[in-house]
Each structure stands twice: as structure tokens, then as C-alpha cells.
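Teaching assistant here, posting this on the class forum so everyone can see the example we discussed in section. The complex has two components, and the goal was to see what a joint structure prediction looks like when all of them are supplied at once.
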Amino acid sequence: MLIQLKKFGTTLSSRPTGKEAFAAFQPSLRELKEGEAIEIDFEGVIVFGPSWADEFLTPILDQYKDKVSLSHTENPSVQATLDLLGQIRAGDFDI
Amino acid sequence: MDKSLLTIGEVAEMLGVSVDTLRRWDENGKLKSFRASEKAYRYYSEQDVYLFLNDLSHLAEEWVEREVGIEPDPSFYCSSNDVFQGRLVKMQNLLAKLEDLATPFSLIVALVGEIGNNSFDHNLGNWRDLPGVFFAYDIEKRTIVLADRGQGLLRTLQRVRPELKTHAEAMQVAFTEIVSGRAPESRGNGLKYVKAIVAKNPLDFLFESGDAQLSLKKGVSQNLEIREKIPSILGCVAVLKF
């Protein structure tokens, strides 16, 4: 399954919008087949902050762990946020 | 036209406020314009605008230090997170146009967003009087100022770290340890994120809460120098120079 974050917006900063995005995506996540991988694509994201990430990315990483991979993470704010998440989570996701 | 005179549109963009706000400020004397006649176009002295711009930090501190809160100028006041997010994107659009930024604009916006988000997330239902944040920026002077009349770091962190006694201790924890002020939820990493960005980029960052004050700059990530701030403030103030 491909999750294109730009479909949730290009400035992904606040906790309420991260929480809303996660809730809105639940029906799609329920369609995930057993063993199916998830690619989270950051292409087109302009600003990405840890509050939004903590509401959207963290629960997906918690639930699907090593099935999750991240792509197009070149944006500096994406890198900085993933660095912080990596410190907290001891690198349990694959960029 | 004299090059030292600016149009109302130019000044509106520099201050990040609307033309209507500038007209109101003109009428109430906050920032006066020059007009050949009452119906002529407004022009502003560049020097007046710069003097005005230099006062952003002062305006924020004054607002936070007030015993009883009053709403700041609407141009600087984000009463809800939705308003803050809208203005954050407006600032982002202005920063994106600058070609000589030494720090990627996405990092500046993410940092500022995190400070403002923290104010809302940690003070929801606990504002001292006025909800929301003071959020102002001066693109020309490369300065962004945020402030809130919330609980401040110490009272927020005491909910999960009751052993904390001073504002300086709370600031040390907030900037160096992964901890949440909204336990049992796993969160509270915003200020570590700010420190990490400032440590790797040519930025100057000042943060004040209670009687504690911290300055961060490139290369500083350990051994934080937390100083005493007089007078003490009850919420938080943050100043970023980029």
C-alpha cells in the first residue's frame, strides 16, 4: 500500500491535523492484506513536524513496524523529524 | 518616489499584517503614515517601520508580563490553533520567496510550528486567562517571535515530573530529555526538535519561561547555559533569528 502524504496537505505540522489524518485513513488501512508492505511517500511535502508525525506516523509504525518503509525523505524538515523519531524509536523503521 | 518611502502594500508584507490593520494603526497613531492630503495614498518612512519592527520582542514580553491579559493586536494574535496554522502557512509562503536564506525555510517553519503547537497542546483548558499565542515576524529583520500566557514549562512538566522545583530545572529537562507534559501520552519532544535544528543551522534562538532564559545557537547541543530572567514571566516567550 502506498500512502502519499501530500494528499493530507503539504504543511504537516499540528497535532490536531495529524490526528484527523490518521482517523480519516483508518478505512484504507483496514483494507491492508496480511503481510502487505506499506510505503509512506513524502514526495511533495513542504513542511513536516514532529507533532503531526507523532499523531500519524507513530501509530502506523507501532502497528505495522517492519512492514513500513519511507520514500522521498530528502526535505530537511522531514529529515529532522525522522532523526528525532529515530532517536525515540531506536531506528525501527526503514528509510 | 523617494526610495526611503514605502507603500502601504510593501509595509503590510514586511510586517505580515493586512493593509486594513495598517490603516487602523495609522488612525490610532501606532504606526503613522505620510499623506499629501487626506485622500492621498499612504507612504511610510522606512526608518519608522524599522523602529516599529524592532519592537516585536518587546511587544511579546510586555503582553506576557501583564498581570491581567488583554488581547494583543489582532495581527499578532492567534486565538486558536487553526488561526495559527493559517498564519504559519502565510509566513511559509513569504520565506519560500527568499533566495538568500542560510537555513532551509522548511526547517524554520517546522521549528516555529512546533513552538506554537506546544503552546496549544500543553495549555488546552489551562490558559491563565487568554487562550492562544502571540505570533509575529519581521521578514526584513529575520526575526520571529512567539509567546503564550499559558502555564509555562515548570507547571506543565510538574504534572509528570513533580520533583522539579525551579524554572531552570524544567527548562533543562524540556530541552534535553524525552519527556511528556501530557502523560501518559508519549509526547513532549518539541523543544528537543528545536534544539536539534538550531544546533545544525545558523540560527539564534531565545526561550524564556518563568525566571529562566536559554539562548541556543549553532553548535550548542550539550551544556546548556540557562540564565536567570528578571522580571519573571508566567507563560513562554520564544525569539528566533534566522
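For the discussion questions: The interface with chain A takes residues 81, 84-85, 88-89, 92, 96, 104, 106-107, 109-110, 113-114, 117-118, 120-121, 178, 186-187, 189-190, 192-193, 196-197 of chain B (CB under 8 Å). The longest strand of chain B covers residues 226-241. Think about how each of these relates to the inputs above.
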